[in-house]
Amino acid sequence: MSPIANPIRTPDLPFVPIREGVSFRPIRFDADGWTLQLKVEPGTTVARHRHTGEVHALTLSGRREIIDTGEIVGPGDYVYEPPGNVDSWRCFGDEPCIVHITLTGRVEYLGENGEVLFHTDTHNQRAAYLAWCAENGVAPNAPMVG
Questions:
Q1: Strands 22-30, 33-40: parallel, antiparallel or unpaired by DSSP?
Q2: What does the pLDDT look like over 125-139, one tens digit per residue?
Q3: What are the E-state strand segments in the chain?
Q4: Beta-carbon count within 10 A of 106 CB
Q5: Cα dist from 22 to 7, 15, 31, 40, 137, whole Å
Q6: For residue 121, how many other CB atoms are within 10 A of its CB?
Q7: Homologous superfamily (CATH) for 13-138
Q8: Which residues of 76-105 are buried (b: 16+ CB within 10 A; e: fewer)?
């Protein structure tokens, strides 16, 4: 059996602010996707968005409510979202929700008429992470951005 190459101790990685109440802990950036842990604070909503690729999301702590269905997703719950899925969700309860997410493609944030207001993808998320590292004197995790 081969040893694990370059293990990453995710609890030691910092959360990088995205906006008020939302931050991410980048784990890996690939050519057409990325892996991260998303932290959403109580009372914070993740705006309506569409995924152009697959999403695999495992809730590590806290709970989140899928707004369209009212489902509550808690620790240990796994959610698969196929390409084209549109949803919005919010942190439910009084503790932050941390979700481990692996996705491909883009995340397109939508306006009231379904128009794309902005998007995130592996390239702009990686750039945002590297800019945050430079501004805060933090060395990027080499296996993550190599």
A1: antiparallel
A2: 999 999 999 999 998
A3: 16-19, 22-30, 33-40, 45-51, 55-61, 63-66, 72-73, 78-81, 86-92, 97-104, 107-110, 116-120
A4: 20
A5: 25, 9, 24, 5, 21
A6: 19
A7: Jelly Rolls (2.60.120.10)
A8: eeebebeeeeebebbbbeeebbbbbbbbbb
The neighbouring-strand residues paired with 77 are none
Cα separation of the two ends of the chain = 25
Question: What type of residue sits at position 140?
Answer: P
**Cα–Cα distance measured from residue 95 to residue 139, given in angstroms and rounded to the nearest whole number:** 29
| Matching residue, tokens 């999403």 | 55
Instruction: Indicate the DSSP class of residue 77.
Output: -
pLDDT tens-digit readout, 84-121: 999 999 999 999 999 999 999 999 999 999 999 999 99
